[in-house]
Structure formats: C-alpha cells, structure tokens
Amino acid sequence: MLYSGLLHCVNNEYSFITLIHYIVNDFFTNEWLVGITMFMKKILISACLLGEPVRYDGQSKPCDHPLINQWLDQGRLIPFCPEVEGGLPVPRPAAEIQGGGGIDVLTGRARIKTREGDVTRPFIEGARAALATALKEGAVVALLKEKSPSCGSAFIYDGSFTGKLVAGSGVASALLRKNGIDVFPENEIKRIENCIK
Ligand code: SF4
Question: What ranges do the domains of the chain cover?
C-alpha cells in the first residue's frame, strides 16, 4: 500500500500531507504488524499454562503471572501441547517415565507408561512436533509445565505412580534442549526475560 501510495502521489502531484496520510495508514496495516512479529523472539509455552484444557485429566493449569499477558500482547507466545499433538486424547490415562528421564526415552533406554501400557511412541512424536513448531515459529526459549513426562524441565514423577518426584526432564523438554532451545518451568518465568532481549 505504501508503494502504491507513493506512486499515486508522484503521478498526481499530490501534496506532502497526502503522502503522510499514506505512510500513517500503512503503518497500521496487518502487513506491518506481521513484519514486526516475524523478527520478534518467540516463546513456546505449554498450552495448559495458557488455560487450554488439554491435560490428562481434562483440566488446565493457567499461569497468571503478569509477564504472560505482556508476552500475549506482544504476540510472542506459541501455545503447544506435545501430548495432544502426538495423538493422545483428552482426557487420557496418567503417564510417567520409567527407567530414566526424557533424554533416556529419546535414546531408547527408558519408556513412558500408563498403568495400562506403553505410550512411548506418541510422546516422542509429540516432542518432535514441539521442536518442529519451535523452529518454524522462531521460538528461542520455552516455558513448560513442571513435573509432566513431556514438559517437565527440572522434576518429573519417578515412574511408580506414587506421587514421588525425581530430578529430571520430560521428553519434549529434553529434545528442545538438545537442539539449543532453553526450557524453564513456570516458577522460573522471570529468567525468560533475559532470553528474549
Ligand atoms: S503435555 Fe505439556 S502442554 Fe500438554 S497438558 Fe501436559 S504439561 Fe500441558
């Protein structure tokens, strides 16, 4: 629009004021806004932290930190649920990693299981989809829900279904980190500010 406006002004010998009108109008078009957000550092975020009811129990875990609203307004957040994108339904049986952490699942040394059976494959597919989305959308960092076998980044359940936590990360977090995308849990949200400066 700006280019056609300039041509229009030149061809018709319109005034400087008319030219300014085209420039101001153009500044507020979607093309400009899309252009600005294209160069903005993005944040992949667990969809459940943004209030989407995608957890295994059909619930969400909204994070109401003021930074969330700020990043939403700036168009920085890319909501994503690895387990749903990996093909698992909502609700679904609770799952835990057995025999290690997310990196062990990726290398075949650990499995992800529910009380009914093995669900390793959809978890790995969801982790790969999370990485592909992060790279495609320009996410440089991720804010993921702690304790999840996909999204946990400091602690996960130990695989015994007894509520016991161990140090470790989920499979999506492990794959993102392996590919250079840092991951933080919701209680370390402020650390993300440094990553998007
Ligand atoms: S996989 Fe991640 S985004 Fe999906 S419900 Fe679990 S914690 Fe939330």
Answer: 1-39, 41-195
